[in-house]
Each structure stands twice: as C-alpha cells, then as structure tokens.
Amino acid sequence: MPTLICDCNKTMPLDPKALGRALDENLTLHSTLCRREAGAFQQAVKSGDDVVVACTQEKRLFGELGQQTEGAISPIRFVNIRETGGWSRDARSAMPKLAALLAMAKLPEPEPVPTVTYKSAGRLLVIGPLEEAERFAAMAGDALDITIFSRGGSGAQERRFPIVGGRIVKLSGWLGAFSLEWAQDNPIDLDLCTRCNACVAACPEQAIGLDYQVNLLACKSHRSCVKACDVAGAIDFTREPVPHAETFDLVLDLRQQPAFLQHAPPQGYFNLKPEEATGAKALDTVLKLRDLVGEFEKPKFFTYKQKLCAHSRNEKVGCNACIEVCSAEAISSEKSRQQVKVNPSLCVGCGACTTVCPTGAMAYAYPRAGEQGLKIRTMLATYGQAGGSAPVLLLHSQELGLQMVEDVGRGARIGATQGVPANVIPLAVWHVASVGIDLWLSAIAQGAAHVAVLVTKEEAPQYLDALESQMQVAQAVLEGLGYEGSHFSLVRSRDAADLDQHLQLVARRRGATPKARARFNVSAEKRTTVDLALDHLVEHAAKQPEVIALKPGALFGGITVDKDKCTLCMSCVGACPSSALQDNQTAPQLRFVEKNCVQCGLCATTCPEQAIALQPRLLLTPERKQSRVLNEAKPYGCIRCGKPFGTLKAIETMLTKLSGHSMFQGEALERLKMCGDCRVIDLHTNPNESRINDL
Prior knowledge:
Number of helices: 22
Radius of gyration: 34 Å
Mean pLDDT: 93
Strand content: 15-25%
Oligomer: single chain
Helix content: 25-40%
C-alpha cells in the first residue's frame, strides 16, 4: 500500500527515513504533491493497491485527478498529518505520532452494517406566526410542498400556501414520517374563509386579527362577525372542536418553545427561535430543508442482544442506563417482554447507550468495537516502534471536535497557538460517547499513558455525566493496582484557543503504564474485552490487592446474602441476566460467579425476602472467576416418599405463613409437606376428600 507524504511547501519538518522505518516502507518526501509533483500521485494510483495520501486539504483535487488519470484503479485514503502535528511547535518530535496516524490509515475499511432508510417527498410543515411562516415558505416553496400551521401574526392577503390552525395535540415522528394531530377549536374555519376581512372590520373588540382566528378571551359575544360572514359561512361559535391528523416529511418550527425538548431532536425537524429567524442560521436551515427530498440512508448504529440485557425480568426493572442516557429519546422500556426497544429512525448514533450498558447487550456497530480497538492498538504499537514515549490518546468527534483540532494546528502555523503536542495522538470517532471503559482500559493496557475525551457543545449533558462516572471507575481500578498518575480526563473546550491550552496540560498527564504492552484484540463482547484488559493490568501491576472498593453504579461487584432471610427460593437465579447467580441441580445451594456480575440489581429487586444487597468492588483473587456458595440449606424430604423437593427453611416458612389460613388446616396442611406426586396421590386416595360423583 503506497504512502505519499508531502511537507506542504517545506512548512513541515518531515523525516521520511524515520517514518519509513516505522511503516516498513521506503518513502519519498514531496513538497508540492498537489501541484508540480502530482505525477507521483498519478503513478501511484495506477498500481491497483490502496494509496494513502497524507493530505486532507486537497482531497477533492486528488479525487478529480484520479478520475482523469488513465488506468487509475487504486482506492485512495486520506489522512491529516499537518494540522494534527506537522504544524505544531514541537513538530520535529512528532514523527512517532505521524507514523501512528499513517499506520492507522492503512487499516482495512470497516465492514458494512445494516442501514436505516428515510423517504421524503418534501411535504414541509411550517409552524409559527403567519408572517414569518409565509416568508420561509416563499424561500422554499419552489422545492417543497408546504403547509402552514398558523400560530398568530398577520398573514399576506394572497393565499399562496394551505393554512391550518387550532390547538396542537401531538407532533411525533421523524424524517419522512412526521404525524401532526390537532384540534380545530376556533370559530373561524380557515378552509372556508375567503380573507375578505369583513369579520376583522365588524368586530367591535378587535378580537380577530389578520391570522383570521378569534381571540376568545377578548370576544364579548356580540357575534357581529357571524353576520358579516353570512354568505361564506366560515364562522360558527357552536361548532365542537374537530380533531384532525396529517403526515409530513419535514417540520420547521418557528416557536420559542420547540415541540421536541430532547437534546437530539428527530432528523427532519428544525427549530428556529424568533431571534434566529433571520441571518445565517435561518438561511442554513432553509438550504438543509431544500436538500431533504428523496431517499436517504444512515447506518444502523447499534446491535442489541436481549439475552444479555439487564433491564427487566418478570416485569421487575433493574438497569435503566441506556434509557436515561439517550439524548434522542429513541429507547423505551418493554417490561412485559423483558427488554428495551430502540427506534432506529430516531437513533442519532451517539453510542452513549453502548457505553453505559454494563453487560454489552447494547453494542456499537459503526464502527464495531473490534474495528475501533484495532485502530487504537495499531496507533499505539506504531508509536512505540517509532521511538515515541508516554502517548496520550485524544478522542474527538468527526464534526466540531475535528474542526477544533484542525484549528489548533492551523493556528500553530501562524504562531497563534502551540499546536497539538507531539505525544498527543488524535483519533476521530463518530461520537465521543460511543467509546467507553472497555476501550479506555484496553488503550492503557496497550501503552497509552492517558486517554482524553474532547467534549464540545455538541454533547448532551447526560453524556458528560456518564463518561465522567465511568472514568472515575476506571481511575479507581488503576489506582488500586498501583498505576500512579492521571489516566483519564474530559477536555471541555469552547474554541481552538481553549483547546490549545488544555492540550498542553493533557500532554503532561502521563500516568503509569504496564511494563509490557498488551497485544490482545478487542472482542465484540464488552465484558470479554474488559476482562482481557484487567488481566493484563493486574499481571503487571505494582500492587496486588485482593479487592478494590468501588462506588455504587460500578460495572463490577459482588452481592451479600442474608442467610437468616434467604429461603433459597432461587427467584434471584431466574432474574440474573448474566448467569452470575446459579443454582445446584443436586443440592439446595445458591452459587455465585463474581466475574459475571454487572451490578444491575435485578436480584435484589426480585428477592421476595429482601435478603440480597449489592457490593460494588473489583475482586482480584482467583475466586472472582470461580463459582462459590453464598447460601445452602438442608433438603426437605417428602413425608410420604422421602424424596427431597425443597429446603427445610423454605418449607417451614411456608407452613408458618399458611397455617392460619382456613384452606390449609388439618390434612391440607400436612399435604404441603409432600412432594407434587404424593400430594396428587393423597388427594385421590383419601376417603375423607369429596369427589365430583358424590355431589
């Protein structure tokens, strides 16, 4: 796979020999690859191998040049080594990082994933004051089929667009499938209204405006308007509210209070507050609306495995983490089916649900964890092979986060910033909330001295809380193992200048790392990856404690069982989604495998005796992976045949509770001491029992 590097008119101090050694490739240094030396690019794209071009600024130019080159059949990949390090103040020390970025660019493309399809015919609903709504409708009316929902104001005399009004009952849906339900509760029917303005002129209270709706609070029931509208018959104060429903593909909401209050509204919904109705944002919104006609696809960002889900068992709720963190309100509870439900059309792909999921039931699919883990391992390994030390992994989004990182690098070229430090390796992800404790710990095990997550105004507040909480758990684990220093941080930046200062601080946060770099592949199963990382970190830890105490809400822990309360009914075993709790087929025992416990709390919620309590911790002895007995009891034998059918304590508890009941007296109470088979035999052979043929 040929790699083409360019020092951009000699503005970057690139070392082709050092980079070539790290990549095991002979590199030629270019200075004007996109201009006079473009022939080298044309020659490379004829090879048939994937070509890596270390420039993103001229991506479009290289793409066009490739199309115009006869015999060019090579796929082209682009990577930015200029703003990410080549233009930094310490660029001469950045060769290991640049080698890491080039190595990552050589990795295979992610495997295709299922897609979600939207179909839009351009039916736009504009909600707001008539004057503003009609102005926006005029800007997009040539490309879209527009309906206006009147919310006051003064409309134009000419009726250019359909207008409806009343009280909005519900607005729901997404791009191509919005549903509006409203009640026509105003005396004036806008379909019948001719806009003759006779009612406006006739109303003594001026309760009718040029939106042609009656202000019922100002109306004094003179009904002069009804007389004025006698011919058209558009006004009827006795009309009952008429329910209506209609579907739309797009919604432009011009109200101060939007219809959707979640951080990530549905695709196809735009809200412009009154102060935003003019200017750049308004123009940008109109352009986006005009482009949203046709058929669109996006990746299905998640996969869900119900059998691993700790949300619900027997309609008892345990883990709600994914529902609470979702900023698009795309996840809902289905307790009756013991699962959660994700609406893929509302999902925006933030991945926060996968990060907070303790079991891995919800997994990120674009890219998959294994593909993301391969990028991280490749970069850290190449960085180390190239002689780099104390690498800091900077995770940032592909939109505003990427823009900030590039602005920092660009500013360094003119001396306005210091640039991205030589040991800070930026990695763009679809959304920073999609990467969690499994990949963070894997990065530390594979040699990262620090993992920083860049958050901007893009991220919902609940994402930051979730990320910070998981970072605290991961940091507590590392501190307990004796890895000194700070290993995780959220970098909250407003702009490039702010980020530049933060990066200089982050570059010096060099936490201790294992003596040997881990080489495992990140698994598709979250808990498996966490275990691999923990095993490596424990093996090379400075301390070897038996247990590390953690705060409630951690992903690891055990449980305690009050033996005086527990009757070994085993309801907790049936509720456990991760097989942490197990029974014994040959003896009345409650067994527990701590490695499997995700601290969802379903066992404690389900236990009828309230005998179970969670114990957040990380156990590091071999006992963590072994099945151990939490409680056991003597078996209770049937008084008739002697076969064990329960525990002594459970049967005694049942007899105590039912002994005062009128249905369980005398022989009926004794029958409770029998197994199921003997109970049936006793009922049919006992001469004192009534039979149907005796009646």
